[in-house]
Amino acid sequence: MTIPAKPATRPLNPCFSSGPCAKRPGWAPEVLKNAVLGRSHRAKVGKQRLNQVIEQSREILELPDDYVIGIVPASDTGAVEMALWSLLGQRGVEMLAWESFGSGWVSDVLKQLKLESVTEHFADYGKLPDLTKVNFDNDVVFTWNGTTSGVRVPNGDWIDVDRKGLTICDATSAAFAMDLPWNKLDVVTYSWQKVLGGEAQHGMLVLSPRAVERLENYTPAWPMPKVFRLTKGGKLMAGVFKGETINTPSMLAVEDAVDGLQWAKSVGGLKGLIGRADSNAAAIAQWVDGNTDFEFLAEIPETRSTTSVCLKITAPWLSALSDKDQDLAVRRLTTMLDEEAVAYDITYYRDAPAGLRIWAGATIETSDLKAIFPWIEWALECIRLSTKAKTGSN
């Protein structure tokens, strides 16, 4: 068996994980030198830095003036759970899921909150549920971009402007990379570790005036953990949305978020960030279109993610293997790329169909993406030859 020659070009940054994601270009530990360390986060300097994250996020995301945004515990997961526990139960709920995290929110609503008036809208990996069947008289919970499926909603046209319920959107792999229609979103959550390339730990919670009104006029039937409480005496805890965090934040992570936001501003703000992600997604699409061994998991082009891009490997020789052997082959492929230090962490998510998941968000350089394509082809050919040698097949 003759091993194919390795490609000549390597990416400058081999980090393509879908979370935590690649740091922004040019990042170095020195950017954290001004972190507010050894001081209380409640001190004036600490609150100023926390509020800087809030206000710069507001500016770059182009939030409406009457929306509030705050830093909350436990990354995007904590922000979503806070929204579910604090807001649901007043009316029926429409739960949309087409990948792992959306399915997790459905499970929490049914098994933890134990709500009874719940309508589930499910779709298999690669597809979206029928969005025309969503009843906006109810609250609606959905992910904008399915991080583990590479499938996103194409736009916000399907959301009713005159809705009676609230829309609660997990946008962790969409915020800063996709155009979100704020007038149609009442709750939006995300974390710093995705498009900004920040450190994990904290989440961001964006609330519309309608969501604030719900918080101030509705009390859920269940006990509310301290880290989920957003009201006091029937009024919104306004300090949470001015840098007075519910729990103690990591000021190192905060400083990193400040750096990420300043970088975002330097590349053109929201328009620049979206443009970088779109360019990366276009580069992947061009490669896939010219290669018969790969296809997008997303079946409809308009629903393809521009950040967490999920691919199927459709090479006929691989498809002829058992599911177990296909899985082993894909994992061997990604291990080879890891060992060559050319593409880290692009294995599919554990609950998703076997394939590749490549982060293409704004912190990724298009030149680095293009550099890994020949390496993926090289690794796949090595495995094909190895499989042929073992089985004697073509």
CATH architecture of the largest domain: 3-Layer(aba) Sandwich
The rounded Rg comes to 22 Å
List low-confidence stretches.
none
Range of strand content: 5-15%
In sequence order, what are the helices and strands, one letter per element?
A: HEHEHEEEEEEEHEEHHEEHHEH
* Main sheet record: 7 strands, mixed
Assembly level: single chain
- Number of self-contained structural domains: 2
Question: In the CATH scheme, what's the topology name of the largest domain?
Answer: Aspartate Aminotransferase, domain 2
SSE class? alpha/beta
What can you tell me about this protein's structure?
The protein is of the alpha/beta class and about 400 residues long. It has 2 domains: about 30-265, Type I PLP-dependent aspartate aminotransferase-like (Major domain) (Aspartate Aminotransferase, domain 2), CATH 3.40.640; about 270-385, Aspartate Aminotransferase, domain 1 (Alpha-Beta Complex), CATH 3.90.1150. About 35% of the residues lie in helices and about 15% in strands. It has helices at about 45-60, 75-85, 100-110, 210-215, 250-265, 270-290, 315-320, 325-340, 365-390, and strands at about 70-75, 95, 120, 140-145, 145, 150, 165-170, 185-190, 200-205, 230, 235, 295, 310-315, 355-360. The strands form 4 sheets. Strands 1-9-8-7-4-2-3 form a 7-stranded mixed beta sheet, sandwiched between helices. A 3-stranded antiparallel beta sheet has the order 12-13-14, with helices on one face. It has a two-stranded antiparallel sheet with strand order 5-6. Helix 1 packs parallel to helix 5 (about 250-265), helix 6 packs parallel to helix 9 (about 365-390) and helix 8 (about 325-340) packs across helix 9. It is globular and about 75 Å long. The model has no long low-confidence stretch (mean pLDDT about 95).
